[in-house]
Design a protein that fits this description.
The protein is of the alpha+beta class and 89 residues long. It is built from four helices and three strands, in the order βααββαα. The N and C termini lie far apart (55 Å).
């Protein structure tokens, strides 16, 4: 984990940017000795957002399953997919 004072963003932007992109890790910035901001590459941010969205969908699906929603076996899903591909109703 890299922690830098906020002035580093102005003085060491290129190094911080390279670090974030190469290591796919954020840099934590402080202001007056307290945590203030997190800087990360756009790629790392996008990946994080995708993972959070996936986690949210998985949690929603699990909540539905626990509340009694219909579930399907692998064989049932396979059959449904075959029917869709073959145009069966």
């Amino acid at each position: 984990m890299m922690i830098k004072p906020s002035t580093s963003l102005r003085n060491e932007y290129n190094e911080i940017s390279s670090y974030c992109r190469q290591n796919k890790q954020p840099v934590f910035l402080t202001k007056n000795g307290e945590g203030d901001l997190v800087v990360m590459s756009m790629e790392a941010y996008s990946y994080r957002e995708e993972m959070l969205n996936l986690r949210e969908k998985l949690l929603e699906a699990e909540a539905q399953r626990l509340s009694g929603a219909r579930t399907y076996s692998v064989d049932e899903v396979d059959k449904m997919m075959e029917d869709l591909i073959n145009g069966a109703e």
